[in-house]
Structure formats: C-alpha cells, structure tokens
Design a protein that fits this description.
The complex is a heterodimer. By secondary structure, chain A is of the alpha+beta class. Chain A has 12 helices and 9 strands. The chains are: A alpha+beta, B alpha+beta. At the A-B interface, helix 5, strand 1, strand 2, strand 4 and helix 8 of A face strand 2, helix 8, helix 11, helix 13 and helix 14 of B.
Chain lengths: ~350, ~900
C-alpha cells in the first residue's frame, strides 16, 4: 500500500506540474482527490490492514492528500500569473506616442520674474504699491532732486503731454518713492513695479516702454549696512545661494551715497567672458540712501528717519534669466515665444 | 574717457608691471571710477620692426615690383618684395616680418611673389593704422615716370612708346633720364638728369625717382612733373601714385619695435564717468582718484609761462562778457606762431586718448583739454574783426560756418563768441571756419572759458553736434580751472617753440565764484553708512581728495560741485573706505506686515484662472496710433477718441495713450495670425488711460481676452468669461445681446453683467474690423473692467451639504419662435420649476425641416432632487408640468 501511495505521489505531482491551464488542473484534482479518485481508491483498501497499521497508513494518506493539494494550488498560482502577464503584454501601448494635449496658459516670462521678486519682498514684510504712469514732472523729477535743465528732462528723452512740460509719462518708477513718502505712514517698506517710458527707438536692447521695480525702506536707524544686507539677500534668492556681489559707487540724483550692485558672472566666475562682456561682473541694480533733500521735500525729517531705495530693470533681468537675446521678443507676444515659459 | 596708463604715470606712479589691467580696473571701479574696458594697444601690432633698405633690385619677373634686402637688426638682411616705388637704398622703413600682426588685423606671413621669396611686407601709413597727422612727413608725392606710361587708348598714345631723353613732350616739358638720386633732407632728393643734350641737376620732392627712370622735366621751372602736372589720369601712370611705404625720419635704428615707435606700448583704460563727476573727464581728475585709491602721491605741477614776446594782451584785444551764460572768460595771446606738427610724444598721447593730432596749436588745445578737462579754443586773431571778443547770444538771423564746414543757423538762445561784427565760434561747441587756425596763422588767441552747462547742451543738441568740448561743458565744469588751463597751453607753446606768448592774461569773471562748505559730522556719516569709522579716517580721505578742513568745516574744492551736503561727504568717505567694507546688517526698526492687498490678490487670481483655461499672457504698449480708433470703427463722436496725446512721440504709431485695450489685443492676434500660428488664446491685464480735467489720467485696469483658431467660437469665449466670473464667485450672471458696439459682430456680441454690475463686453470681432487689420479670420475678444470684477467677486464660498438622495433627470424639447433668446427660456424654467428643480441645461437648439418656419426647437435637461427624500415619479412629473405651463404662457413655447 505504501508503494501504491508513493507511485500515486510521483504520478500526480508530475501531471500537475505539466498541466498548462486551469481546467486541466481541476480535472487532475478530480482524478486524484475526488470521491472516485485514485487516492480514495487506495484508502478503500485500508480494511485489509492490521489495526496497528491502519493509523500509520491513514496518516500517510492524509499527508499525500495535502501534498497533492499544495501542488495544485502552487500550479494554479503560477498559471494565473502567466495568464495575467500575457494579458498585460497584449495591452501594452507605445509610450513614445504623444500625450493628449491639455491646454495650460503661460504667464509672460517677464511677469514670471516679476512675481518671483514680488514674493521675495513680500516675504520680507514689504508691500507692493501701484501708481500713475501719466505723472507730474514734479514727482518724476523735481522732488527727486533732478533739477530743471537735467538732460533726462529733455524733450528728446522724455515723453510730454503739455507744452510747459508739467505732465509727462514717467521715465522711472522712482516717483513712487515720493508718492509713498507723502501718503503712507512710517515706517515704509515697499516695492513699486511698473511701466516706464523713455524716448528710445526700438531695437534689440531698447524699447520706448519698459518695466522697472522700485523699492524703498524708510525707518529710524536705516543704514547703508541694511541696504547691503537686504539687497544681498534678494540677489541670493534670485540668483542662488553663494552668489558673489559687489557694491560700487554710482550716481543718482535722489540717493546719496549711491551705488550699483554687480553680481559676479556665473558663467566665468569673474574671469571675464562674453556674457559679462569681459568684465567678470554683471550689473543688477542701482541703489542708495534716500537723499536727505528728498526726505525733507516729502515732509520726513532726515534727522529722525533715514531710508534706502533701489531700482532695477525688469526686462534685462528676465532676458538674463531666460537667455532671451532680443528685447523685441518681449513685446512681440508671439505664442511660440510665450509658450516656452 | 580714455586714459593712457603711460601718461598717467606722469601724475601717479602706477607702473603696469606692478598694477596690471585687472587689479587697476577693479580698484578704480570700486572706488567710483567705473572701468568699461582696458585695451593693451601693443597687442594690435606684432613683429613689425624698423628696417633699413640695404639693397634694392628690380624683380626679375615683374615690371613693377622691387626686391629689397632689409637690415632689421639681425645678422643677415631679410628679403622683402614690394610694389611701392617710393623706397630707396638707405631708407628706414616699417617692416612687418613673418607672422606679424598689423593694427587693421592683417596677419603677414612669408611667401613667394612671382617666384621670389618675400619674408614679410613693408608698411604704409594706412597699414600701420595711422594718417598723415601722425606722421606729417608721410605724405607722398610721385613723379610721372614715362617708363610707367600706359595710354588710355593704345592706338592714340600721348607719349610715344619709344620716347627717350631729350624728346619734347609739350612746351618746355621734355623727357629726361634720371642718372642719380641722393637724399637731400626729409622727402627731398638731389637728382641728376640726362636731358639728351646735357645734364640737369635739381632738388626734387618726388619720392619715386630712381636711376634709369624717364621723367617729365619742365625745363623752364626745373621741376620734375607729376601726373597731375601733366593733366594725366592716374590710370595712365598706374604705379606713380601718391601712396607707398612710410619712410621713417624718427630717432630709431634697424631692429627697433614699430609698436613702441607708434606709442602702442601703452594700455588704454576706458572709463564710464557718471555725469556728476565732470572733473574726472581728464588726466588730472582721474590721476587724483587713482592716487587716493592706491594711496600714492599725486604729482601736479604749476604751469610756468615766460611770455618772452613782451607787450600786453590788453593792448591788443578786449573781451566783453555780455551774457551771464558765460561764467568766466580767460584768454592769452600768442605772437609769431609757427604752425607745425607737434612732437611725437604729444601726438602719441592725443592718439591714445582717442583724438587725432592736427597741428601744434590745435593739438595743444586738445592736449590741455585731455590733461586739465578744460576745453580750449584757439582763434586766428587776424580774423577777429575789430580786435574785440564779445561773448553774447546770437542775434536773430545770424549764422556761422563751423570748423566742420557746415553752415549753422543760430538762434537767440545760443551763446556765441563774436567779434565786433559776427560770431566767430559757437561757445563751448565748435569754433567758426572764419577764424580757423591755418598754415599761415601768425597770431593766436587762446580761449579758456566757462559756460553754463545746460545752455551748451541745448545748443549742441539743437545744432546736432555734440563735440568733445560740449560734452564736457554740459556737465558743468569748474570755473576755477580756466586760468590754469590757459597757462598750461602757453607753457606748451613755449615748450614746443610754436610761438611767443604775449604778457598778461585777460580774465573776465562777472560774478564772484562761491566756495562751498560742509560741516564734518562724523556721527551722522556713521549713522548713514552703518559704520563706526573714526573722524581721523574721514579727515584723511577728504584731505587726500583735495578738500581742506578748518576745525569741523570742510572746504569743498572748486572742481567738486557735486559735493554740498553731509551725505555727499558720506559717499566720499564710503568710496575710499570701501563700499564692500561696509558691514551687512539688518536694521531692527519696526517690523511691517507686508503682503498682497485684496486687489493684488484678485489680479493674481484672474491671471491664474486665465492660464488654467489655456490663455497665454501678453504685454502690450500703452500707447497706440490714433488711426487705431478708425481701425476698430470707433464712432467719430466717441468720447474715447479724446486721448492723452504725447507731444513728442517717437512716431505716429505710439503717439496717444490708449483709451481702449481692444486695438492692442487685435494687434497681437493679427501678428500671431500673420506668423501663421494656427491658434492663439491670450490675455492681458492692462491699463487704459482716460483723460481727466486736470490733464492727468485715470488709469483703470482692463482684463482683455482674445483668441482665434479652429476651436474658437463665440461660446468658447463666453465659456472663458463665465468660468472666470464663476471662479471669482460672481453671481447672477447675465449676457445681453449687444448690437450697437461697432467693433463687434452685431449678432455675436454680448454685454455681461453680474447682478447690476456691468462687467464688460465680449464677442466676435466685426468682419470689417478684421478686414482693417488685413485678416480674414474670426477673432474673438472680451474686455472686462477690473474694478467691476472686483465689485462682482463673491465672498468666500460657504459649504453646502452634499445631496443625500439621488437626483432624477428628464429631457424636454419645446418649440418656440426662433427669435426668443434661449437664455430667457432657461431663466423661465428655473424660476417656475419649484423646489425640486435644481438645474436646467440646454443641450440642443434646432431649426430646420422638422419645425415650422420661423420656429426653433430647444432641448433642455432638467435635474430634480429633494433634500428630504428620494424623488417620486409624481414629483418629477409635477415639476415638468409646471415648467411646460410656464413656457407656454410666457413664450408660447410648446412641447415638441
């Protein structure tokens, strides 16, 4: 009987492992384990055994049943996995085919950069201030310490609306300094981005309309050290940590001392290359301590309050950031250009 | 401003070997004199040597080339072929050797010319980047050599081919054969000629004569004639040209470097000087900055004039300053002037500063301008009528021919230097041709004056001639500088032996010059800078810059008109303490909240929503052409045509401030369309500019949407507007057909309202407008007022419980008159549907053969739901019945 069981074990395991579909496995189960199956047939011969042999044989038979069942389950798992794999294979798509286009609009690249800068200043407790583009010469020039006769007031440089030169298109966002000082309560921390206008013919680097960002802080105890610390931080946020800066003296009528801020050319590391025109530095913005004359002209006592201000050109910044080579692209608004950003 | 490093060393010892270009530029830049570029002039010329021609032969295989053996200081001579005929054995010439580089970028390598090896090239003035102003003796005169004669018409030669010595050419002119040529001075040659019947000896200034040549000799004047003298065309004597090799008459020897001889062993630094520092537009000003920057001594010298001519200027002339625009007029006189080229050192410095040498007198005025920053003018005093100088504004109708040869019409705002009759110069801009220094000028009046900067700038601009002088004057020069400058000019006259200076100086200065003083307040300066500098440091910096101090009073030097306030003093201190040495530290102060305002947040949200719908952002010019109003068919009487006009626009296209944003959008759509972009969907949040009674503008923002393309139609546009308004939480949206707006298609245009607030207009652009833009496609635009959007925007949404019971959907179709707006039908349905009707959407509108003429069928899908229970069939049918009844009663619309 033992031998019978052994040969059944060998035959059944072999048959199960050779079966190649779920139906034939089910047939094998019936064949070996069914009520009329081969194992049952063997058990029927138990009666011929001695009472001592019976429990031993019974145990062996149960063991065999279990083994066959396990073999069937294992085979089934393997087969169903293979079937799934086959199905998945047949469902495969060519992943290199293009995706279905979803319409998404694009922010103008220049406003991408502007928003980045706005966020930086908002994070430092600044407000954003808006003001008129059609402006009084008084605000655009006089109150900024730019006297009558200054070349920037020439009709060849500034667009005027009145013969007496009283009303004009602002040539800079700096009049926003005056507006802010006249209308806002102290302390002031603000930036004022906006359109400005100068009489420049359109070419790859000039446009009669362009954008500036003005910034100003007025408070007690504001120093040039504060200007440097703040603008260094801003520049790091725009150009990345570790950006090397350089402050050098410059001249603006409405700040004193005045400076320009350069960053070390990221392309050549300051050695000089075509990007920085061999200088090793790239000019980023102009700044300075608000001229005490401007402060007092706006009703702020320069002996109590001090402040600093900066101005930067947005177009050049965006062009640098996105490697845009021609300013005209910015105002041309070709969708093939806009959709790149 | 170009600064020669070689020249700078005269004032501050900063040798190139110790202070290379980079460190010099960096230090000067951070102390406030920004360096743009530095040019090493020696790099422009390489391997060009002084050579002596030791032997000169005819080229064996060429009828015009010469083969020269050149001693260039090496062991053996170098062989160079040349086509120039003005060279002689013994001449010193510039020889570009193998691998030489010339200032015009040409590279020279050795090679063979018609089979003969040539190890370089002999150079002309032009090839060395020079003109006759640099080497006045470099002008070349060529004789007409009959052996080079090529008749214009071979059949009819003017000179027969077999002409020989003694043959007559015409008149007293005969052919003569050169027997010998020997140098007799600069560009002069003792020449012996065979005249056929004898010999003639003469001194010729023609440089192309060699033994054996056949020349044209005028036996009457004993001159050898040029092609010009023979009235011949140049091409008749193709090699007898007024050009050739530069023969050097300098203190030099074979092997010397030509670059050094040309003064190119120099580095030129180009500075960008800010307009507040005109004092830095000269050697002395920059030298002062450099001295303080590098802690070096500044070596200045006071001009000494001997005035050996005696006499007194006051006996010769008088100066009348008749207009306050002239602040100061200083003048000196020079007699017995000998116009000549200035010496090499002066020409070199003038050249390296970017100017051209002319002659000694003109060069001296330019030299002084470069050194002192004071523009000078030299008048030929014999041309000053009445011997008087009147500084006055031009009279109506006056004009002057300036030195550049142009006739200039003057206006009464232009300050002029005049004699008793007429202007002889435009003050501070350019002298007049009528008093120009010429070859035989004998008496010169040097003018060193100070004029009002703004006036000079306006005059220069009006005349369209910005000169070296005017660009200095316009920034406002130091009136104290005129005296020293005129003294320096006279010192140079004596140094160069260019004339004899007359005693006395005329110096007219109608108003007393002011002395600026500022109080030294170290604590204020430290407070502004955020530093803790000692008073001593501040004093040292100021003293080194030429300021003087008495107690705590700072006396500002006259050349520093930009300094008048303690903040200016702070900048001086900061510049030389070092901007980059100032610490970085955030000031405490009161913290501010910052953040975006509600309106700024709205603007951001509108932008986000537009982009989420696939619209790209554009930025358009605020100014437009007045013709654009016609293009968009704006009615002639529209108040929007009253735009702010720019009085001095760049052009018609950008001459008025837009009162409507539509033309800007149409322009960009058109551009994209013309670029063959298949579709475009664009938005801009831009301002329009509405004239106010006070002449200023209201500048409201407009949200401008626009698009075209295959997928675009009115309802896509309307979808954008609806989505935008819904995102902003606007409620009670209404779209009302707009037939009157001439820019839009009368049947495809609507005004949009949120409740009572009119938001704006949207629609398809009128085909006539599209035609005005040269476009045959349908453009769709919307113009929405930003302030109205702000008014219409809703509050924060309040959560509504999600439906607990399922909804029931029923479709109905009704037939009604075709002209009834569908929107009204659905409004009617929603109004009358009762409590269970939650939504009504239109899904089909049909006109055609299946409905009666003049009618249409509209299909709605009605969604019904109860919040308390599952809706029964009865409830649904009851709702439908109420809807149908209302439609029939109000619109005569019946179930189809």
């Amino acid at each position: 009987m033992k031998e019978l069981m052994q040969s059944l074990r060998e035959a059944s395991i072999k048959a199960i492992n050779e079966s190649d579909n779920p139906e034939s496995i089910e047939a094998l189960r019936v064949k070996y384990l069914g009520k009329k199956g081969e194992l049952t047939a063997i058990l029927r011969q138990m009666g011929k055994l001695t009472p001592e042999e019976r429990p031993v044989m019974g145990q062996l038979a149960n063991q065999l049943r279990e083994e066959i069942e396990q073999a069937i389950d294992l085979r089934k798992t393997i087969l169903s996995k293979a079937i799934l794999e086959k199905q998945l294979e047949s469902e495969a798509v060519d992943v290199t085919l293009p995706g279905r286009e979803q319409p998404v609009g694009h922010k103008h690249p220049m406003y991408n950069v502007l928003d980045q800068i706005k966020d930086i200043f908002i994070g430092m407790g600044f407000e954003i201030v808006d003001g008129p583009e059609v402006e009084l010469a008084d605000y655009n020039f006089t109150k900024l310490n730019i006297d009558e006769g200054h070349p920037s007031r020439d009709w060849t440089d500034t667009f005027y609306f009145t013969e007496d030169g009283r009303i004009l298109l602002r040539t800079q966002t700096s009049p926003m300094q005056v507006h802010a000082m006249e209308t806002r309560s102290l302390p002031i921390r603000m930036i004022a981005p906006g359109r400005v206008y100068r009489k420049d013919e359109v070419d790859a680097t000039h446009s009669p309309m362009f954008h500036q960002i003005e910034g100003m802080v007025i408070d007690k105890g504001v120093t040039m050290a504060d200007l440097k610390a703040t603008l260094n931080l801003v520049v790091e946020k725009i150009y990345g940590k570790g950006t090397v800066t350089r402050f050098r003296p410059h001249h603006f009528p409405f700040t004193e001392p005045s400076c320009e801020l350069d960053i070390q050319c990221h392309k050549c590391g300051g050695k000089g290359c075509p990007t920085c025109k061999g200088e090793g530095w790239i000019e980023v913005l102009g700044a300075g301590m608000v001229h005490p004359k401007v402060l007092s002209g706006c009703g702020i006592d320069p002996d109590v309050y001090s402040g600093w201000a900066f101005g930067m050109g947005l177009e050049r910044l965006a062009m640098g950031e996105y490697k845009i080579t021609d300013l005209r692209l910015i105002f041309e608004n070709d969708v093939r250009f806009l959709e790149q950003f | 401003m170009n600064l020669s490093r070689k020249w700078l060393n005269e004032f501050v010892n900063l040798p190139l070997s110790e202070y290379d270009d980079r460190s010099f530029a960096e230090a000067m830049t951070v102390s406030g004199s920004k360096v743009e570029v530095t040019e090493d002039l020696s790099k422009s010329i390489k391997n060009v040597k002084v050579g002596r021609i030791v032997k000169l032969d005819k080229h064996p295989d060429s009828d015009h080339m010469l083969v020269a053996q050149i001693d260039v200081g090496g062991e053996a001579p170098v062989q160079i072929c040349t086509g120039a005929w003005n060279v002689h054995e013994g001449d010193l010439v510039p020889a570009a050797l193998h691998n030489a580089l010339l200032p015009n970028g040409t590279k020279i390598t050795k090679g063979k010319l018609r089979g003969v090896e040539s190890c370089g090239m002999l150079c002309s003035l032009k090839e060395l980047g020079c003109t006759v102003h640099d080497f006045p003796y470099g002008e070349i005169k060529a004789a007409a050599l009959l052996n080079d004669y090529h008749p214009l018409d071979p059949a009819k030669p003017s000179v027969s081919a077999d002409i020989k010595a003694g043959d007559r050419i015409f008149g007293a002119v005969i052919a003569a054969q050169v027997k010998s040529v020997a140098p007799a001075g600069v560009n002069l040659w003792d020449t012996v000629l065979d005249t056929g019947s004898g010999e003639a000896a003469l001194v010729s200034d023609c440089q192309n004569l060699h033994a054996g040549d056949l020349a044209a000799l005028d036996t009457k004047t004993k001159r050898i004639l040029t092609p010009d003298d023979l009235h011949a065309e140049q091409k008749e004597f193709p090699h007898c040209i007024p050009d050739g090799i530069l023969i050097l008459h300098e203190d030099c020897k074979p092997g010397d470097d030509m670059g050094e001889l040309l003064g190119l062993d120099d580095h030129v630094v180009e500075f960008e000087i800010t307009p507040n520092r005109p004092d830095c537009l000269c050697m002395i000003g920059l030298a002062r900055e450099a001295a303080v920057t590098f802690h070096k001594e500044l070596k200045l010298h006071e001009p000494q004039v001997k005035a050996a001519a005696g006499g007194d200027i006051n006996e010769l002339t008088k100066v009348f300053v008749e207009d306050p625009l002239c602040v100061r007029y200083t003048a000196r006189m020079v007699k017995n002037v000998k116009i000549a080229p200035s010496p090499a050192w002066m020409r070199e410095r003038i050249r390296n500063a970017g100017m051209r040498p002319i002659n000694n007198i003109v060069d001296i005025t330019n030299y002084v301008m470069l050194e002192y920053g004071q523009p000078m003018h030299a008048f030929d005093f014999s041309c000053v009528k009445g011997g008087e100088i009147h500084v006055r504004c031009a009279r109506e109708g006056e004009s002057i021919q300036t030195l550049d040869g142009t006739e200039r019409r003057l206006t009464p705002s232009m300050l002029c230097i005049c004699d008793t009759e007429k202007p002889v110069g435009v003050a501070g801009v350019m002298g007049g041709a009528n008093s120009e220094i010429v070859g035989d000028t004998a008496m010169v009046l040097f003018e060193s004056a100070n004029f009002n900067g703004t006036s000079i700038r306006r005059t220069a601009t009006a005349l369209g001639m910005r000169t070296d002088a005017s660009s200095r004057y316009e920034k406002g020069l130091d009136p104290q500088n005129t005296y020293a400058a005129v003294q320096r000019a006279c010192e140079l006259i004596e140094l160069l032996g260019a004339g004899e200076v007359v005693e006395g100086v005329i110096d007219v200065c109608p108003n007393e010059l002011r002395q600026t003083t500022v109080k030294l307040e170290p604590e204020k300066i430290n407070a502004l800078l955020g530093t803790d500098l000692s008073e001593q440091i501040m004093r040292d910096i100021l003293l080194s810059l030429g300021f003087t101090l008495k107690g705590d009073t700072i006396f500002v030097p006259s050349w520093r008109a930009d300094v008048e306030h303690y903040s200016d003093i702070a900048e001086e201190v900061a510049r030389f303490y070092g901007y980059n040495e100032i610490p970085t530290a955030f000031s405490g102060g009161i913290s501010t909240a910052g953040g975006y305002t509600e309106l700024q947040q709205l603007e951001r949200k509108i932008g986000e929503c537009c982009r989420s719908m696939g619209l790209d952002e554009i930025i358009t010019y605020s100014f437009i052409s007045p013709a654009y109003y016609d293009k968009i068919r704006m009615p002639a009487d529209s108040p929007l045509r009253d735009s702010l006009k720019i009085l001095n626009p760049l052009g018609e296209d950008t001459s008025i401030m837009r009162t409507t944003i539509l033309p800007s959008m149409l322009e960009i759509l058109t551009r994209n369309y013309n670029y063959r972009n298949r579709q475009a969907a664009l938005y801009e949040i831009g301002r329009i500019y509405l004239k106010r009674p006070d002449g200023m503008a209201d500048e409201p923002k407009i949200v401008s949407l626009g698009g075209y393309g295959e997928k675009m139609d009115f309802f896509v546009l309307k979808g954008w507007v609806e989505k935008l308004l819904k995102e902003l939480g606007a409620e009670k949206l209404r779209f009302v057909a707009e037939k009157q707006n001439p820019s839009y298609h009368p049947g495809r245009c609507a005004r949009v309202y949120a409740g009572d607030v009119e938001i704006g207009v949207l629609g398809e652009i009128h085909p006539l407008v599209a035609a005005n833009y040269g476009v045959d496609a349908a453009f769709y635009c919307a113009e929405l007022r930003f302030d109205a959007l702000n008014k219409a925007k809703g509050a924060l949404p309040v959560y509504k419980p999600l439906p607990r019971f399922p909804s029931v959907t029923r479709d109905i179709a009704v037939v009604c008159r075709a002209d009834i707006p569908v929107g009204e039908l659905s409004e009617c349905i929603l109004k009358n549907g009762g409590e269970y009707l939650k939504d009504c959407t239109i899904f089909d509108v049909y006109t055609g053969s299946h409905v009666a003429p003049g009618c249409k069928s509209v299909a709605f899908s009605l969604t019904m739901r109860s919040d308390e229970q599952t809706l029964t069939v009865e409830h649904a049918e009851e709702t439908i019945a109420r809807v149908l009844m209302a439609l029939r009663e109000e619109y005569d619309a019946v179930m189809r």
